[in-house]
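Good morning C.,

I know you're traveling, so I'll keep this short. The sequence:
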Amino acid sequence: MNNHSSQTNFPEEIMKIETEKQEERIKKTDERIKKLETKSIQTLNLYFIFQAIVLTSTTTKSPSLNCNKWWVPFSLSLLASVLNLFALLGILSNIWRARERLDQHRADLELMKVYRFTRVQVSQVLPGNPLNQEISRPKPDSIARWKRHLMGFLCVGLFVGFSGVVMYGCYSIMCHSSGGNCVKVC
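The C-alpha coordinates, ready to paste straight into the viewer:
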Protein backbone atom coordinates (compact mmCIF):
# COMPACT_ATOMS: atom_id res chain seq x y z
CA MET A 1 0.00 0.00 0.00
CA ASN A 2 1.31 3.45 -0.92
CA ASN A 3 -0.39 5.54 1.79
CA HIS A 4 1.59 6.80 4.72
CA SER A 5 0.31 5.32 7.99
CA SER A 6 -0.11 8.77 9.57
CA GLN A 7 -2.75 9.87 7.08
CA THR A 8 -6.34 8.73 6.70
CA ASN A 9 -8.14 7.92 3.49
CA PHE A 10 -11.15 10.22 3.51
CA PRO A 11 -12.52 11.62 0.26
CA GLU A 12 -11.54 15.19 -0.51
CA GLU A 13 -15.11 16.50 -0.16
CA ILE A 14 -15.43 15.08 3.37
CA MET A 15 -12.14 16.67 4.37
CA LYS A 16 -13.27 19.98 2.89
CA ILE A 17 -16.52 19.85 4.91
CA GLU A 18 -14.60 18.93 8.05
CA THR A 19 -12.14 21.79 7.69
CA GLU A 20 -14.95 24.26 6.90
CA LYS A 21 -16.76 23.19 10.08
CA GLN A 22 -13.56 23.67 12.07
CA GLU A 23 -13.01 27.09 10.52
CA GLU A 24 -16.59 27.99 11.50
CA ARG A 25 -15.86 26.91 15.10
CA ILE A 26 -12.80 29.16 15.06
CA LYS A 27 -14.85 32.07 13.72
CA LYS A 28 -17.59 31.61 16.37
CA THR A 29 -15.05 31.36 19.17
CA ASP A 30 -13.28 34.49 17.91
CA GLU A 31 -16.60 36.37 17.83
CA ARG A 32 -17.36 35.22 21.39
CA ILE A 33 -13.97 36.51 22.54
CA LYS A 34 -14.64 39.89 20.92
CA LYS A 35 -18.02 40.10 22.68
CA LEU A 36 -16.42 39.23 26.03
CA GLU A 37 -13.69 41.82 25.52
CA THR A 38 -16.32 44.45 24.67
CA LYS A 39 -18.27 43.47 27.78
CA SER A 40 -15.16 43.86 29.95
CA ILE A 41 -14.46 47.32 28.52
CA GLN A 42 -18.07 48.38 29.13
CA THR A 43 -17.87 47.10 32.71
CA LEU A 44 -14.69 49.08 33.33
CA ASN A 45 -16.13 52.22 31.72
CA LEU A 46 -19.21 52.08 33.94
CA TYR A 47 -16.99 51.53 36.97
CA PHE A 48 -14.80 54.56 36.15
CA ILE A 49 -17.87 56.75 35.62
CA PHE A 50 -19.37 55.65 38.94
CA GLN A 51 -16.08 56.26 40.77
CA ALA A 52 -15.82 59.72 39.19
CA ILE A 53 -19.31 60.55 40.45
CA VAL A 54 -18.43 59.34 43.97
CA LEU A 55 -15.17 61.28 43.98
CA THR A 56 -16.85 64.40 42.60
CA SER A 57 -19.49 64.23 45.32
CA THR A 58 -16.77 64.47 47.97
CA THR A 59 -15.40 67.70 46.54
CA THR A 60 -18.66 69.64 46.90
CA LYS A 61 -18.94 71.68 50.06
CA SER A 62 -22.20 70.34 51.41
CA PRO A 63 -23.10 70.75 55.09
CA SER A 64 -24.30 67.14 55.17
CA LEU A 65 -20.90 65.85 53.97
CA ASN A 66 -18.23 66.41 56.55
CA CYS A 67 -15.28 64.50 57.92
CA ASN A 68 -17.52 62.48 60.25
CA LYS A 69 -19.29 60.99 57.23
CA TRP A 70 -16.23 60.12 55.13
CA TRP A 71 -17.25 56.48 55.28
CA VAL A 72 -20.34 57.03 53.04
CA PRO A 73 -18.49 57.75 49.77
CA PHE A 74 -15.72 55.39 50.87
CA SER A 75 -18.26 52.56 51.32
CA LEU A 76 -19.92 53.31 47.98
CA SER A 77 -16.53 53.26 46.30
CA LEU A 78 -15.55 50.03 48.06
CA LEU A 79 -18.82 48.34 47.15
CA ALA A 80 -18.49 49.37 43.50
CA SER A 81 -14.88 48.20 43.48
CA VAL A 82 -15.65 44.77 44.91
CA LEU A 83 -18.64 44.15 42.64
CA ASN A 84 -16.79 45.29 39.54
CA LEU A 85 -13.68 43.33 40.50
CA PHE A 86 -15.68 40.10 40.67
CA ALA A 87 -17.44 40.93 37.41
CA LEU A 88 -14.08 41.66 35.76
CA LEU A 89 -12.52 38.44 37.09
CA GLY A 90 -15.49 36.43 35.80
CA ILE A 91 -15.22 38.00 32.35
CA LEU A 92 -11.43 37.52 32.29
CA SER A 93 -11.87 33.87 33.21
CA ASN A 94 -14.32 33.41 30.33
CA ILE A 95 -11.94 35.19 27.94
CA TRP A 96 -9.03 32.97 29.00
CA ARG A 97 -11.06 29.78 28.52
CA ALA A 98 -12.34 30.95 25.13
CA ARG A 99 -8.82 31.91 24.00
CA GLU A 100 -7.51 28.47 25.00
CA ARG A 101 -10.35 26.84 23.05
CA LEU A 102 -9.51 29.06 20.08
CA ASP A 103 -5.83 28.06 20.25
CA GLN A 104 -6.82 24.38 20.41
CA HIS A 105 -9.25 24.75 17.50
CA ARG A 106 -6.50 26.32 15.39
CA ALA A 107 -4.00 23.58 16.28
CA ASP A 108 -6.61 20.93 15.49
CA LEU A 109 -7.41 22.56 12.15
CA GLU A 110 -3.75 22.44 11.18
CA LEU A 111 -3.61 18.77 12.18
CA MET A 112 -6.76 18.05 10.17
CA LYS A 113 -5.37 19.74 7.07
CA VAL A 114 -1.91 18.18 7.17
CA TYR A 115 -2.76 14.63 8.25
CA ARG A 116 -6.36 14.48 6.97
CA PHE A 117 -7.99 13.62 10.29
CA THR A 118 -11.65 14.35 10.95
CA ARG A 119 -12.79 16.42 13.90
CA VAL A 120 -14.22 13.28 15.53
CA GLN A 121 -10.86 11.51 15.29
CA VAL A 122 -8.99 14.49 16.69
CA SER A 123 -11.42 15.11 19.55
CA GLN A 124 -11.23 11.50 20.77
CA VAL A 125 -7.90 12.14 22.46
CA LEU A 126 -6.82 14.85 24.88
CA PRO A 127 -4.30 17.45 23.75
CA GLY A 128 -0.76 16.12 24.14
CA ASN A 129 -1.82 12.48 23.68
CA PRO A 130 -1.04 10.42 20.58
CA LEU A 131 -3.59 10.00 17.79
CA ASN A 132 -1.56 7.08 16.43
CA GLN A 133 2.02 5.82 16.72
CA GLU A 134 3.50 8.84 14.92
CA ILE A 135 1.24 11.84 15.59
CA SER A 136 0.14 13.51 18.81
CA ARG A 137 -2.65 16.02 19.21
CA PRO A 138 -0.91 19.34 19.88
CA LYS A 139 -1.51 21.37 23.02
CA PRO A 140 -2.12 25.12 22.90
CA ASP A 141 1.01 27.23 23.40
CA SER A 142 1.66 27.47 27.14
CA ILE A 143 3.77 30.63 26.74
CA ALA A 144 0.87 32.43 25.07
CA ARG A 145 -1.39 31.27 27.91
CA TRP A 146 1.00 32.62 30.55
CA LYS A 147 1.32 35.94 28.71
CA ARG A 148 -2.49 36.26 28.64
CA HIS A 149 -2.72 35.51 32.34
CA LEU A 150 0.10 37.93 33.15
CA MET A 151 -1.58 40.74 31.19
CA GLY A 152 -4.93 39.95 32.82
CA PHE A 153 -3.48 40.06 36.32
CA LEU A 154 -1.62 43.26 35.48
CA CYS A 155 -4.94 44.84 34.46
CA VAL A 156 -6.59 43.59 37.65
CA GLY A 157 -3.69 45.05 39.64
CA LEU A 158 -4.16 48.43 37.97
CA PHE A 159 -7.89 48.21 38.70
CA VAL A 160 -7.25 47.48 42.39
CA GLY A 161 -4.65 50.28 42.55
CA PHE A 162 -7.09 52.78 41.02
CA SER A 163 -9.76 51.64 43.49
CA GLY A 164 -7.39 52.20 46.39
CA VAL A 165 -6.53 55.70 45.19
CA VAL A 166 -10.20 56.62 44.83
CA MET A 167 -11.09 55.22 48.27
CA TYR A 168 -8.20 57.07 49.88
CA GLY A 169 -9.27 60.20 47.97
CA CYS A 170 -12.80 59.91 49.42
CA TYR A 171 -11.36 60.05 52.92
CA SER A 172 -8.57 62.50 52.24
CA ILE A 173 -10.64 65.12 50.39
CA MET A 174 -13.28 65.22 53.11
CA CYS A 175 -11.02 65.12 56.15
CA HIS A 176 -7.70 66.66 55.17
CA SER A 177 -8.60 69.53 52.94
CA SER A 178 -7.11 72.95 53.49
CA GLY A 179 -9.03 76.23 53.40
CA GLY A 180 -9.70 75.99 49.64
CA ASN A 181 -10.73 73.10 47.49
CA CYS A 182 -7.23 71.59 47.40
CA VAL A 183 -6.21 68.49 49.30
CA LYS A 184 -3.46 69.05 51.83
CA VAL A 185 -0.54 66.87 50.74
CA CYS A 186 1.72 67.27 53.79
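Safe travels,
E.
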